[in-house]
Amino acid sequence: MCIILKSAAELDVNLKLKGFKIYEVADTVVGLPEYSRKDFYKICLHYGDSTVHYADKTIALHGYSLFFGTPHIPYSWHLASSQHNSFTCIFTEGFLNNNERLKSLQESALFKIGGTPVFSLNETSYLFVQSILRKMQEEQESNYQFKDELIRNYINLIIHEAHKLQPSESYTSSPNASSRIAGLFLELLERQFPIDNPRQSLEVRNPQDFATRLNIHVNHLNRAVRQTTGKTTKDHITDRIAAEAKALLQHTDWNVADIAYALGFEYPTYFNNFFKRVTGATPNSLRK
C-alpha cells in the first residue's frame, strides 16, 4: 500500500499539531517528500540504491538500509535506482521524550553529531523493522486513546534494534570536502533564523560553537569556509546577526534589550556596541 502524500503545507500542519508523521514511498512516487521544518528527527527504512550526503561524507546505500536523521545537521538524499521503497517517520524530540525517563535524542549515538546515521540490514532485520513501521502507520490512523504512547514505544524499539546493529562502512570522503563543510556551516547558521520570539536566544554564535556542532576542529572549519566563500567564519556570523538585528528593529515592536537577548547578547550595551561597529548606526537611530 502506498499512502497518497499530502501537500507540504498540510504535512507541516500535521507535524506542528502532533509532532509525528509516517508515510510510505514506493517506486510509483518520484522522489522523496521534503519538509522545511528545522526541528524534526527522521527514521527511514529504505530498499534500493541511493546516496546520502551527510556532513562531509558521502554514504552509498545498496539494498536494505536504515537511516537516522537529525535536525542539527543538514543532509541530502538522492535516489540512484528506479526500483525503491521507503518507510519514513518524522517526529519532534518533544514527541518522543514525553516520557521524562528517556534520554535526550541528541545524546543518542544514532542522532548525535559525529555519530552513526546509517545501518546496512539483512532481509530478516529489514522485515522486522518494516513490520514495526507498518504498526506505527496503522496506529497513526487509529482512534486508540493511547496511540501516541504506543507509537513512542515503537520508535524506541527501532532505536534499540539499531543499537544492536553494526554501522554501514560504505562511507567515502566528499570529492570537495571544504565546499561541503562550508555549506554545512552556512545551513546551520541560517537554520537559527528568523528569530520569531523575544524569549528565544541564539545558541550557536561563534566559530567554536559551530565547529563543536559539526564535530570538526575550528581551524578546519575556518579554512574550509574561507577557501570556499572568501569570507571568514566570524564574518559570516557577524553579517547574519546584523541582518537579523536590522529586521527585528524595523519590523517588530520589541525593545532593544529583548532584541539583544534574542540575538545572544548578555547585555544591551554589548549589542549596541556590536551594532554600531558593524552598521555605523545605533539600534535606536535605525529604528527612528
In short:
Keywords: DNA-binding, Transcription, Transcription regulation. This protein has 288 residues and is α+β, with helices and mostly antiparallel strands.
The total beta strand count reads: 9
Taking the sheet with the most strands, its summary is: 5 strands, antiparallel
Low-confidence stretches: 1-17, 28-37
Q: What is the count of distinct domains?
A: 2
| Global outline | globular
Rounded mean pLDDT is: 79
Order of helices and strands: HEEEEEEEHEHHEHHHHHHH
Q: Could you tell me how far the N terminus lies from the C terminus, measured between alpha carbons in angstroms?
A: 59 Å
Gyration radius (Cα, Å) is: 21 Å
CATH architecture classification of the largest domain:
Sandwich
The helicity comes to: 40-55%
Which structural class is indicated by helix and strand composition? alpha+beta
The level 1 CATH classification of the largest domain is Mainly Beta
Strand order of the largest sheet: 1-7-2-5-8
Pfam family, one: HTH_18
Organism: Chitinophaga dinghuensis
Domain HTH araC/xylS-type: 179-288
Keywords: DNA-binding, Transcription, Transcription regulation
Q: What is the topology?
A:
Elements: H1 8-18, E1 20-25, E2 41-47, E3 50-54, E4 57-61, E5 64-69, E6 75-79, E7 85-91, H2 93-96, E8 118-120, H3 123-140, H4 147-163, E9 171-173, H5 177-190, H6 207-214, H7 218-229, H8 233-251, H9 256-262, H10 268-279, H11 283-287
Antiparallel strand pairs: 1-7, 2-5, 2-7, 3-4, 3-6, 4-9, 5-8
Helix pairs in contact: 3-4, 5-7, 6-7, 8-10, 9-10
